[in-house]
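Supplementary Text 2. Reproducibility record for the structural model of the 284-residue chain.

All settings were left at their defaults, and a single model was retained for analysis rather than an ensemble. We include the record here because the model underlies the residue-level annotations in Supplementary Table 4.
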Amino acid sequence: MSGITWADTTSRSDTMLPYRVIGRVRQTRDTMTLHLKPVHTAAQRFRPGQFMMLYSFGVGEIAISISGNPVTGDDVLEHTIRAVGAVSGALHDTGIGGVIGVRGPFGTGWDLESAAGGDLVIVGGGVGMAPLRPAVLAALSARGDYRRVILVTGARTPADVMFRSEQKRWRTVDSIEMYQTVDHPGPAWDGRIGFVTEPLAHLDLEPERTTAFLCGPEPMMRFCARALLNKGIPATDIGLSLERNMQCGVAHCGHCQLGPLLLCRDGPIVDYATAEPLLAVREL
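Retained model, structure tokens:
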């Protein structure tokens, strides 16, 4: 993107706004959470599950899910970024005081309202915990609105566990049921070993009163969704966070197309009834 003009008088979601890095929290070897404060005007308030377009000067712009707390009431944004390419690497490495561009928020969010009154199952794999963290924090802030809140998380190794200190607090302090598992344990790991589908398959759930949120690699989400379907949970009550190549954020460029969907507009949160036939097509 060239010819950027910073806006300081508007908070429209399609306007680039300058944000300054005021904090950096390392999550894993290649993943960093940036705390961003508006230089002038703040972006519109976000809903759990939405994303922003983040711009690194002279490098480019990519879509990054919002991983911050949606109920704090302040203007600070949190984005958890894994360095896997030129733009994500540049954003990941932005130091305290550095300025990046922010557009958004964009897309659909987790349907926490429909889940109220029932049980909420949240399943995250690896960096997929980043888009789910706002949903966990929102549910905990209104804990009385839900019966059970169940969190199932998976990581490749213990060193790859996201939001490690928070997960420990959720497990020991907050009224949340937690199941952690890793694929490859280290010598100090005394928890579960294997995929997230294993503890998920053993959960005793009431299908007519359960809503599930899934985020992680697509194969993981498909297997988890099938495990939930086998328990009788309707596909319309299973939400997935889907990724494609989002380049504009406003449904103009078409790069994020998944069949009839443009995921920057119709996603990233899509129910499994909609997603299942599309994910079954290899070309999509």
